[in-house]
Amino acid sequence: MKISILNLIPRFIDETSQQSINRGLELAKWADGQNFERYWVAEHHNSKSISCSATDLIIGYILENTKRIKVGAGGVMLPNHTPFQVAERYGTLETLYPDRVDLGIGRAPGTDIETAKLIYRDTYKEDNFKEAIRTLLSYFEDEAENFKVRPYPGVGTHVPVYILGSSMTSAHIAAQLGLPYSFAGHFSPNTVEVALKIYREEFTPSKYLDKPYVMLGVSANAAYEKDAAEHIKQQAISIFLQIQNRNNRDAFLKADPNNSPELTSIEKFMIRTARGLRIEGDMNSVKDQFMEIKQKYNPDEIIAASYIPDFKLLKENYEIIQDLALND
After folding, report:
1. Residues 6+ apart with CB under 8 A from 125
2. 263 falls within a domain
3. What is the CATH number of the domain that holds 90?
4. What is the pTM (predicted TM-score) of this model?
């Protein structure tokens, strides 16, 4: 099974944006020397605790400083960009770094309502998402040379496109277009099974893909030692609750669960039901969790997200997940 990394470029307390971006780069450089398939960066806006609003710039920075690993958007939120702009930007990246650029496309704006008003395209309608994907795909084709307006240098670059989603709607679209499907199991665990069933059953072979391809997002918080595993688990819970607090966008992520207030009943419920698919704990625990995910969902690839602030433990975490995927 292929294994990849999803990074939201988290920014922790007492850390600058530059430091958080460079920590993301260091992780990518480390992953480049391992057996990871790809390294994706998400798109989020108006959050002091996340430094990946200009996704294509972060991707270019990582590509320039790595040699092998595929780097891409996980993903570009299409309400915020025209297909033409996306084709120009990612076609440029593909021109500079051939065969190393991925493009994941999502339907959500990736931000709050107030920010969305500033960046949302008035011409975009969610019902037209599938057609917008078709337009984007056509811009990357050789035939785009015949268009009246051409997204150079994206024409003919054939940047691989993935449909991102966390619902049944995205599953239908990915299947109908014959594209690979990346499901956000790390934050939408309750619809994974149904969405993947829809995608696989409705999949129509295309010139891009002859059979279904599922990339499954999971949260990863693994460690070799039991005490370290419990520590990063509690960190992950604390950070999860901070991210869920939409009124707290001006705050940095705090990684010390010991200083967190007592949990409310709502927070306890969220932890039980909304933390997503995860591989979490020491070696004995994560082996069983990995096998359960593999047997239940049978993904072609796992893409793992983690918010561990300690870089040594972060690498250890991904090392464990990599070993599970490659030696299952």
Report:
1. none
2. no
3. 3.20.20.30
4. 0.92
Establish if 266 belongs to a structural domain. no
Q: What 8-state DSSP symbol labels residue 66?
A: -
Residue 152 located in a structural domain: yes
Q: Which domain holds residue 299?
A: 2-231+276-326
Rg (alpha carbons) of the chain, rounded to whole number = 19
C-alpha distances out from residue 83 to 8, 28, 56, 170, 226, Å: 23, 27, 14, 18, 47
Return d(Cα 38, Cα 34) in angstroms, integer. Answer: 11
Euclidean distance between CA atoms 81 and 90, whole angstroms: 12
Q: Which residues 6+ apart lie within 8 Å of 91 measured at CB?
A: 139, 140, 151, 152, 153, 154, 155, 157, 159
Residue 220 has pLDDT above 90, yes or no: yes
From the list 179, 176, 170, the residue with the least C-alpha distance to 213 is 179
Percent of the chain whose pLDDT exceeds 70: 89
Which position has the token pair 């998402």? Answer: 129
Number of helices followed by number of strands (H, E) in the chain: 11, 9
How many domains does the chain divide into?
1
Cα three-residue angle 270-318-190, rounded to 5 degrees: 30
The model's pLDDT over 145-187, given as tens digits with 9 standing for 90+, comes to 888 999 999 999 999 999 999 999 999 999 999 999 999 999 8
Q: Specify the residue for token string 């969220």.
A: 270
Which helix (DSSP H) or strand (DSSP E) does residue 198 occupy?
A: helix 192-202
Residue 247 in any domain: the answer is no
Instruction: Give, in order, the Cα–Cα distances in Å from 15 to each of 12, 19, 50, 77, 316.
Output: 6, 6, 11, 26, 22
Nearest residue to 220 via CA among 104, 296, 323:
323
